[in-house]
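Help! Submission page says 'invalid entity' but I think these are all valid:
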Amino acid sequence: MRKLVIAISMLAFAGSAYADPIKGRQALMKERGKLAGQISKVVKGETPFDAAAVLDALKALQANAEKFDVDTLFPAGSDKGDTTAAPKIWEDMAGFKAAEDKFLADTKAAVASPPADVDALKAQLNTLGGDCGTCHQTYRIKKT
Amino acid sequence: MAWLKKLVGAVVVLGGAAAAAGWALSAPVELDAGTVAQLGPGDAAKGKRIFYAGGCTSCHAKPGAQGDARLQLVGGLELKTPFGIFVPPNISQDQKDGIGAWSEEDFANAMLKGVSPSGEHFYPAFPYASYARMKPADIADLYAFMKTLPAVAGKAPDHKLSFPFTIRRGIGLWKLLYLSPEPVIALPAGTTDKVLAGRYLVEGPGHCGECHTPRDFAGGVKKAEWLAGAVAAEGSGVVPNITPQGGTKDWSEADIANYLETGFTPDFDSVGGAMVDVQRNMAQLTADDRAAIAAYLKAVPPHPNGYPARKPAS
């Protein structure tokens, strides 16, 4: 009986997002990149500006940022393994959270004032892309 | 035993001669009069472009400074390298703590010869081995632009190095091996102006090879593995291979130029690490400059990665 309970709880655990925080955070980062890519294509003129589609992408970025819970995605010890997270994250958790909070705030601001044209979108993408860089400057290590 | 005396004598003479030769060879060499004459009066507006191409703020701004504060070149960053900790100095216009009192010639000697106004060698953590390839007129423009930047008081701490790297004179020998104004990559006749312009920006002011090329035991860049990527000199991780055989091999020239402008890779990862500051500087250049850099990076010889393969994750 006890074994069964443990087995079930292990299964439940594996099914949750916490099972593999590294995979969880990488999936969210991948999604961010995809959304930034959609917006960037509009800025570069590769896809035409469609206000509704752009707003959807910005909303998806906000939803992604809201899901990005640092405490569950970056538990102690998850600096080991197949990850490019820098040890600096755990040395400076407050700074890391502040960088993430700024990204969330900037996505909210973008959604709150939807861009009316490509130039406005470009300015927003610059801000959001700047957030990506600021965080990756300190908290990510390139390994390959 | 006369032979022994003779031998000792010979050794002493030879040793003394070697020491004397070493001393003579390691002497700081300043610019010749002809190069100084080419400096001329600089143009600050043009110098702004060189300032961003040269990435001065990346090392000389106060660590963590953002926005306009990045133009306060007070120094103080710590570059933790295998040779010790280098601390970029104050190069603001402060007369006492910065370089406000330097003449144009002093500045050119620092940039092109790695020699200070007092006639000492600078450590090559200051990338004059790259800046040595710059045109004197660009140095003059840069000098004029830096004159427009604020004076900020405050000396940065000294370098923290261990013996023998504490002996500045030894850098003179290093310079004999590694300091040259010649281009790294000889390009064939008929190479487009665009690629040549890119070579100048990358090999000269941009000093890309300082981080993207592996170094030998003496800290000189291995030109035979130019831009092949390297283990990061400070911190951990690697600096990517940016030759046509590296991680950027599938990037188009437009992809490279766009990355330098926006910080996004073609698959919408973002710029990271020390490259963040570099990219923000590159974003200040003209679209033509970024396109030239991209064209040159496609024209350099391909190399396998200049760093060891990543160990499989355990």
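Support: the input was valid. A stray whitespace character was the problem, and the output above is from the cleaned input. Residues 2-139 of chain A form a domain with the Four Helix Bundle (Hemerythrin (Met), subunit A) fold (CATH 1.20.120.10).
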